[in-house]
Amino acid sequence: MLSLGAGVQSTALYLLACEGRIGRFDAAIFADTGWETRATQTHLARLKAVGGDIPIHDVSQGNIRSDALDPDRDFVSMPVFYITDEGQSGMGQRQCTNKYKLRPIKREVRRLLGYPHPARIPAHVYADVAVGFSKDEIGRVGGSGRRYLNNVHPLLDLDGSADGGQGWTRKDCERYLRSQGWTEVSKSACVGCPLHGPAQWRTLRDNDPGGWADAIAFDKAIRHARPGRPGRQQFLHRSLLPLDEAPIDRVSRREWQDRQVDLLDVIADEAAESGDLDGCGPWMCRSGQAVSR
Fold first, then answer.
1. Which InterPro entries match (predicted)?
2. For residue 57, which of 69, 71, 47 has the smallest C-alpha distance?
3. What pLDDT is attached to residue 194?
4. What are the domain boundaries of the chain?
């Protein structure tokens, strides 16, 4: 099976399998957060159209946007930024990858194995699940944390890398996708992911007005403290400014300083311009931090 995040690496794996260059997958599993970008939805539809006999299973744990606005929930699972009345700022809990990506994938794997929860899976029964980590992400490779789910990493075994070694890098995947006519593969992420870099916010604003308006509306809706957390305001953008006022256009460090925006060193850092390269991969959150399994 393939854990399909719909980003560069997992798309490359899916197409390689369709082409017969790597082993065929019995299925690909895409976990839908309910708030995927229009670009991701379009990309996924195209994959389904060319996928041949490798079915793509859409799974979901709910709608992350509506869940985050539910007043009966204890906290927003997205890592939104906040500031308290006392001036303390930080980032909220990061549980969205575990809840909206990993859980539904594991549930679907159990179902495909014939042992849906709470059935006990025999010790000898397991599924190999391909994860699209490339060799420039070797530090992210790890197990699934579940005996019945064995993570494998086909990109690490491929020959033909531009650097002459074994295993493909992200650049190798991009080169392969271009050769197959897939010139635009966007990073998979929610419309209003707080871990967007400025470039991703600009892409949303400039290419998807509906998504941009939706993100702005959500940002305003989460502003006030949730139950049990008085004196806290929440924001999608790390500047702790409303999204439609946040500094997402490329400007100099001096200009940011003149605006007196918080967390200048993070925003002005050129490495943060595009956010995390890999988008919201099921087996690693966009922060680069390991997720709870």
1. Rossmann-like_a/b/a_fold (IPR014729)
2. 47
3. 93
4. 2-272
> Distance between CA atoms of 9 and 135, rounded to whole angstroms?
11
- pTM of this structure: 0.85
With a cut of 70, list the residues of the chain below it in pLDDT. 74-75, 225-230, 251-293
| Prior bond of 227 cis (ω within 30°) | no
- Give backbone dihedrals phi and psi of 281, rounded to 5 degrees, phi first: -75, 140
Q: Can you tell me the distance from the alpha carbon of 28 to that of 276, in angstroms, rounded to the nearest whole number?
A: 23
SS (H, E, C) 51-109: CCCCCEEEEECCCHHHHHCCCCCCCCCCCCEEEECCCCEEECCCCHHHHHHHHHHHHHH
Q: Quick one: fold of 2-272?
A: Rossmann fold (3.40.50)
CA 277/CA 55 separation, integer angstroms: 27
Local structure of 152: helix, strand or coil:
strand
Identify the pLDDT of residue 127. 97
Q: Is 138 helix (H, G, I), strand (E, B) or coil?
A: helix
pLDDT at residue 224, as a whole number: 78
Which residues share a beta bridge with 271? Answer: none
pLDDT per residue as tens digits for the range 141-169: 878 889 999 999 999 999 999 888 899 99
CA 251 distance to own-chain centroid = 26
Distance of CA 117 to the CA centre of its chain: 25
119-152 residues labelled b (16+ CB within 10 A) or e (exposed) = eebeeeebbebbbbbbbbbeebeeebebebbebe
Single-letter amino acid code for the residue at 122: P
